[in-house]
Amino acid sequence: DAKTTQPPSMDCAEGRAANLPCNHSTISGNEYVYWYRQIHSQGPQYIIHGLKNNETNEMASLIITEDRKSSTLILPHATLRDTAVYYCIVRVFYNFNKFYFGSGTKLNVKP
Amino acid sequence: NAGVTQTPKFQVLKTGQSMTLQCAQDMNHNSMYWYRQDPGMGLRLIYYSASEGTTDKGEVPNGYNVSRLNKREFSLRLESAAPSQTSVYFCASSREPPSSGNTIYFGEGSWLTVV
Questions:
Q1: B-side interface with A, Cβ within 8 Å?
Q2: Which residue of A has its CA nearest to B101?
Q3: Cys-Cys crosslink for B35: which of A5, A32, B43, B101, Cβ 3.0 to 4.6 Å?
């Protein structure tokens, strides 16, 4: 199973871009990279996912390196409401639909 | 537009008592999951059900049983609760097949305290 490595915490100034890195050096060719976040102790919320190409939606952008061994989630204009734990998850394709969460990155957006 | 609904939201149990956490989804998803989250930690998979009538163990299945009652409902049972099972429990669901890249949707959590 591909594992992910994320920094335990990061700070970001309100209004600035937040760039959250994730290392997944053992990712397989048909495994997706997913990003979720968890605000306080609510249920995790889907943000974005990708396979090879960079992706963008109304919440964030996902940049995946060409070798797919790492990725970066970008929140273009962070707000205080973006303070949360962000999880980078690699979909374990061959083990039927299991999502394994690590410890994530606690993003602190400061005024 | 309920999504994934869990009950109860809060529960206090005495050691040795049993209880069942209920989960239902209204998105016609094939797969359902139960996770637990201990303070300051990420989510860990307890059990999952790939489809109606099937269940399988996740990372931390000991002390739990599950039932996939029908396509909508997936329950988690603690037969003899222990303080180590104090945690927040999340139910989730997703649509398959795996190649689609579909996402997983979570309920709001059930806070369980075992004293």
A1: 4, 31, 33, 35, 37, 41-45, 48, 50, 56, 58-59, 88, 90, 92, 94, 96, 98-99, 101, 103-109, 111
A2: A32
A3: B43
